[in-house]
């Protein structure tokens, strides 16, 4: 069995037991590989390939015949065969039933083609096949040849069954499929290895790079696994460099359309590259030394793209035209457009931009009926014709919409549109209509008290805090019986307080009472009986980590109102991603502290960028639990990167380690 998932996925490794050496111990094959500077060791205990392959072939034949399978067949292999059968893929398929037209030129293909063209001469084109697929596993580019793969135009499991590209797309790491692990007859003599290509900004899988060859005589890893991973890394590097160029083209198109009197500002969706420690960490995670050598100049272009950002942040002067340039990640909006762009209009424009980037063409903007404006949309293209976004000129319908300098903000206690949050709020609204007590539970800082104030009426509710008066002997006597009562921190109630609360419920059964309770601390028997009594009318609020999609709605509600003439607090897309990835142990309360601290203490203009966030939020969570030593080491490396302006070479030199070691350690913290 393969130890350590960093070395990739190979289902064949798990079939059969270990081969015993002459001394009776297990014989292991160490495998060292490097991608992004990662040095991983895979320890395996396989049976000889000559024995394993006929056994797996026999298992596949019995599966196709509907006979019971022999013992020891890996469950993952059987599950893959069953999926193919469920999808109706015939094992003797010659070509996919639905052969789609090859997708048009895309950003992925444009970035990958020059990289892969440089790799082809080293491929051994008469023995191997190199393929690039998109996120739908449609084949975008091929070179070389391998029997059985020449005519493939799609590698989706629904069309061709189990294969390495589909496995890499699903697992987000290198994957190998060999011979009889495939479902199709035509691939029984094929070994393939695939590596995912991750987006430089989103981290989403954009496609895969696959190297296929005749069935390997030796066991995993595939002899060209390092080539597949280096190719994927080089494509990611080129994508990163081109992203900076695309942003400059979008900015130029915006400025041409807005005109000299209509310069605009970059809004909260903009993310014009990264700098400092943030850029270094993300770059270190994605770009391997091999990839830098495979795509010479790409990293330098990426750094140049990162440096060429300050000019994009311009404060508007004068009215100008109502112009918005969007590409699904960045937004450039003039002051005139700020008055017309509602969230629904902006969402419609970004939908058009995303569709255009995917090659679906630029259609109608499809603005909502109550938009109050029309939009004339024009695609923005690179020199090679690739669409990277759109520029929209907005025109008001009828009388111009009045400018609202300080639009009303929704209360924090009700802000959020995620399913868990709306379900909890809806249930609470339903229960609070009746005069019986209501119990709100949830982790610390989830917004129980804020929601309680909104439910009972913030103007009339009387708040009692058990954390300050555990016996309720000071606050309850001052309570006015005709006012709703909000009791906070019920977990802090002492026994006299519980008795006083029970007495209140007996004497005033129709009191509008809402109680908040944070689980986690031991409670006495009296309080436990009270909680049990209220359990039928209780609502549990979800923690912020379970409704991260609400963070973007919470930010403007939590930010203090700006001073007269000052713009509201906005955020780059990279900063928003960091906020959404953080676990928020303090939930909404912790988020509110971060937002208010930034609003009160930051001394720079423009959107909040990731380097401005607190260390814990900026660095993001580790993908696995770290030991105390690893925590200290990680903090030291990140501090060195910040101290040297994100320069990885200088940071490594200051730490006394090689740059490859720095890459490896950073990748190791990600699991």
Automatic annotation (TrEMBL):
Region (Disordered): 257-315
Keywords: ATP-binding, DNA-binding, Nucleotide-binding, Transcription, Transcription regulation
Superkingdom of this protein's organism: Bacteria
Basic and acidic residues: compositionally biased ranges: 283-293
UniProt signal peptide: none
GO BP of this protein: regulation of DNA-templated transcription
GO molecular function: ATP binding; sequence-specific DNA binding
Gene3D superfamilies on file: 1.10.8.60, 3.30.450.40, Homeodomain-like
PROSITE patterns: SIGMA54_INTERACT_4
Ranges of Low complexity composition bias in the record: 294-315
Name used for this protein in its record: Predicted protein
InterPro entries, per the entry: AAA_lid_NorR (IPR058031), GAF (IPR003018), GAF-like_dom_sf (IPR029016), Homeodomain-like_sf (IPR009057), HTH_Fis (IPR002197), P-loop_NTPase (IPR027417), Sigma_54_int (IPR002078)
Domain Sigma-54 factor interaction: 423-600
Keyword Transcription regulation: yes
